[in-house]
Q: What sequence folds into this?
C-alpha cells in the first residue's frame, strides 16, 4: 500500500485530497499543528481512516518526525499562511511558513525519504501584475503581496531541489479554487455565507472591497485531481491548473445573490477596509499543458460552483 503525507490536511484542499487518496487506496498521514481548539471540521468524516501527526512548517524536527513516521511515497505540501490580505499584516510569518516552510519540508524529504515524490502548492498569485493574458507556465512572475513573493520563493525552491538533487518535485500553479469548504474570509465564501445570512434575516448587508478584480475560479474537488496526476508522471514538472474563464468579484456576488432570489445591489456595500495595498487585477489561466500531459479537465463550471456554495450555506443556516 502506498503511503502519503499531506501538510495542510485540515484546510480546504487537504480535505478533498485526503478523500481522493483514500478512494485510491493510500495510507494517509496528515500533519496538523497544535491549536487551542482543534480545527478538524473539514476532515471529521474521515478521521477514523487517516492518521494525524503533530507538526508545524516552522519547526524542522517536527517535519522530519512526520516524514520518518509516515515513510511516504508521496508528499503534498498544502500547508501555508494562505490568506493574501493577512500577508501584509504578518509578512515575516508568511515568509516563514509559506516560503521557508517549503524549504524545510524539501530538506526533510531530501534527508529522510529522498525517493518520495513531492507536490508544492504554487499559486497564480505569483503572476500578480500580469505580464500577459492568459497566463501559462512560461509567463513572467510579478508577485504583488508578501504571500505572492513567499510562494515564489517556495516555487523556485521546488524547482531547485529537482535540478540539484534529482528529486521528483512538482509545482502545481493553481488558480483560485473554491468550494463549500472554503475558508470564510476568502471573497467567494464571504459572499455565499452573507447571502445565506441575509436570506435568513441574520444580516442586512455585505461589505466588500474591490468589486472589479477578476479571478479564474474553479472547484477545489476538481483541482486536487490535478495534484495527484502530477505525481503519477514519470518526470516531475510544473503545471498551470485553471478553468480558462475569468469573472469579477461583482459578477460572483450578482450570481450568488440571484441564486437566493435576492438583488445584490440592495445588499452589497463597498468598504475601503477591504481594499489591499496592492491588487492583482486580473487572473486568467491557460491550462493546456495540464490538459495535454495529465489529461486533466475541470468538471464543475463557474455557475455550478456558485450554486453549490450558495445552496450549502443556505442549508447550513437553515439548521
Ligand atoms: P487553507 O484552507 O487556508 O489551508 C491551509 C492549511 O495550512 C491548513 O490546514 C492550516 O492549518 C495549515 N497551516 C497553516 N500554517 C501552518 C503551519 N505553520 N504549520 C503547519 N500547517 C499550517 O488553504 P487551501 O485553500 O486549502 O490551499 C492549500 C494550499 O494551496 C495553500 O498552500 C495555498 O496557499 C495554496 N493555494 C491555494 C489556492 C486556492 O485558491 N485555494 C490557489 C493556489 C494555491 P490550520 O487548519 O491549523 O489553520
Ligand atoms: N477576501 C476578500 N474579502 N477579498 C475581496 C473582498 C473582501 O471583502 N472584496 C474584494 N475582494 C477581492 C480581493 O481584493 C481579490 O482581488 C479577490 O477579491 C479575491 O480575493 P480572495 O478570495 O481573498 O483570494 P486571492 O485571489 O487573494 O487569493 C486566493 O487565491 C490565490 C490564487 O490566485 C487564495 O486562495 C490564495 O491562497 C491563492 O494562492
A:
Amino acid at each position: 500500500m502506498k503511503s502519503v503525507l499531506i501538510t495542510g490536511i485540515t484546510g480546504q484542499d487537504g480535505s478533498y485530497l485526503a478523500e481522493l487518496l483514500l478512494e485510491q487506496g493510500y495510507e494517509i498521514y496528515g500533519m496538523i499543528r497544535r491549536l487551542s481548539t482543534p480545527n478538524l471540521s473539514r476532515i471529521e468524516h474521515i478521521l477514523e481512516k487517516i492518521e494525524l501527526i503533530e507538526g508545524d512548517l516552522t519547526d524542522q524536527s517536527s517535519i522530519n518526525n512526520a516524514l520518518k513516521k509516515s515513510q511516504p511515497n508521496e508528499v503534498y505540501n498544502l500547508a501555508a499562511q494562505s490568506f493574501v490580505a493577512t500577508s501584509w499584516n504578518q509578512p515575516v510569518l508568511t515568509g516563514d511558513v509559506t516560503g521557508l516552510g517549503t524549504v524545510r519540508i524539501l530538506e526533510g524529504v531530501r534527508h529522510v525519504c529522498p525517493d518520495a515524490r513531492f507536490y508544492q502548492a504554487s499559486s497564480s498569485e505569483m503572476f500578480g501584475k500580469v505580464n500577459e493574458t492568459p497566463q501559462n507556465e512560461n509567463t513572467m512572475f510579478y508577485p504583488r503581496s508578501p504571500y505572492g513573493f513567499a510562494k515564489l520563493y517556495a516555487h523556485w525552491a521546488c524547482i531547485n531541489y529537482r535540478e540539484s538533487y534529482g528529486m521528483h518535485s512538482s509545482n502545481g500553479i493553481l488558480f483560485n479554487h473554491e468550494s463549500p469548504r472554503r475558508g470564510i474570509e476568502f471573497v467567494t465564501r464571504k459572499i455565499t455565507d452573507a447571502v445565506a445570512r441575509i436570506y435568513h434575516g441574520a444580516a442586512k448587508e455585505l461589505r466588500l472591497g474591490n468589486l472589479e478584480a477578476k479571478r479564474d475560479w474553479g472547484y477545489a474537488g476538481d483541482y486536487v485531481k490535478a495534484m495527484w496526476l502530477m505525481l503519477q508522471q514519470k518526470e516531475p514538472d510544473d503545471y498551470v491548473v485553471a478553468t480558462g474563464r475569468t469573472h469579477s468579484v461583482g459578477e460572483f456576488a450578482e450570481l450568488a445573490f440571484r441564486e437566493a432570489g435576492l438583488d445584490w445591489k440592495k445588499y452589497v456595500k463597498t468598504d475601503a477596509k477591504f481594499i489591499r495595498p496592492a491588487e492583482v487585477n486580473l487572473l486568467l489561466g491557460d491550462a493546456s499543458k495540464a490538459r495535454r500531459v495529465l489529461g486533466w479537465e475541470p468538471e464543475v463550471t463557474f455557475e455550478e460552483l456558485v450554486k453549490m456554495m450558495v445552496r450549502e450555506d443556505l442549508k447550513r443556516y437553515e439548521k
The pocket of guanosine-5'-diphosphate-alpha-D-mannose (ligand 2) is lined by residues 82, 84-85, 123-125, 175-176, 185-187, 190, 208-210, 213, 215, 249, 274, 276, 279-280, 283 (CB under 6 Å). The chain has ten helices and 13 strands. The chain has a mean pLDDT of 98. The radius of gyration is 19 Å.
